[in-house]
Design goal:
- About 40% of the residues lie in helices and about 20% in strands.
- With about 260 residues, it is α/β, with parallel strands linked by helices.
- It has one domain (about 1-255): Alpha/Beta hydrolase fold, catalytic domain (Rossmann fold).
- Helix 5 (about 130-140) links the parallel strand 5 and strand 6 (about 145-150).
- Helix 3 crosses helix 9, helix 4 crosses helix 5 (about 130-140) and helix 5 crosses helix 6 (about 160-165).
Length: about 260
């Protein structure tokens, strides 16, 4: 953990301009991609006029859609990170959604969606609610990723703990207050099982709905409302986590002689 923290400080300093500099112009496109045998729509938010620093795949929650992360997609692109946000193919087969994310990563590695091939150390997987489980399952089967970020992840299958224990990549988890919508804080169990958990952060006062933006009245009615300020706080924390993980992966890949001695 100490070594991870040291590299994180180096990485955040190196990439500070991405997270806090002037927003970049953003290009948004939508394409159809076959994922785990089903055609799905995928939104791509890419920064313009800046070098692409990495790619974040974002997975939505149960019964939700890619549109629920459009604000995060745009914010990531403004910070210099291309966001790839698919519709997931399954409502009940959450393991199948994990397979779809694995398929998408393989396609990104080969070059798809008008993007150059993306090596795994430049790729972060992010998932909200059941999408957190899908991306965790996928991450455990994709060694070499820059990292995994769980946004109030929920595991109704009981298989997430095993995937967390197998996950070789560093991980960061952001959590809402416990409620029925997140199985009363089931993300904590996933976080405790992580092999390389870097940190877990409770967003004080946040509901499950605050981890998607825009949310809608159905989520507000079922899960206790949402706050523009908390949604913005979560987006900011997510972008910082992405930058930190990409920075760590880049620093770890640097030749030893390229790192200045203290």
């Amino acid at each position: 953990m100490a070594r991870l923290a040291a590299w994180s400080i180096i990485g955040v300093a190196a990439f500070a301009g991405l997270a806090h500099g002037a927003p970049a112009a953003v290009r948004v496109t939508t394409a159809m991609v076959e994922l785990a045998g089903a055609e799905q729509q995928v939104d791509v938010y890419r920064p313009q006029d800046v070098h692409m620093r990495g790619v974040a795949v974002v997975a939505h929650g149960w019964t939700r859609s890619r549109s629920r992360h459009s604000d995060l997609g745009r914010a990531l692109a403004e910070a210099g990170v291309t966001a790839v946000i698919p519709d997931l193919p399954n409502v009940m087969n959450l393991w199948g959604n994990g397979d779809a994310i694995v398929d998408l990563v393989h396609r990104l590695e080969g070059g798809v969606l008008d993007l150059p091939p993306v090596p795994r150390p430049r790729l972060v997987l992010i998932g909200t609610s059941a999408g957190g489980l899908a991306t965790l399952l996928a991450s455990a089967d994709l060694p070499g990723l820059a990292g995994w970020i769980g946004l109030d992840p929920v595991d109704r299958t009981g298989t997430g703990k095993d995937a967390a224990a197998r996950l070789a990549a560093p991980a960061i988890v952001l959590l809402a207050e416990p409620s029925g919508c997140n199985l009363f804080g089931s993300g904590r169990s996933l976080a405790r099982s992580l092999a390389r958990g870097m940190r877990v952060q409770l967003i004080d006062g946040a509901t499950h709905c605050d981890f998607e933006s825009p949310t809608n009245n159905i989520c507000r009615a079922l899960c206790g409302g949402a706050s523009d300020a908390l949604q913005e706080q979560i987006r900011h924390a997510t972008i910082e986590a992405v930058v930190e993980l990409l920075s760590l992966a880049a620093a770890t890949a640097m030749p030893r002689h390229a790192v200045a001695a203290p």
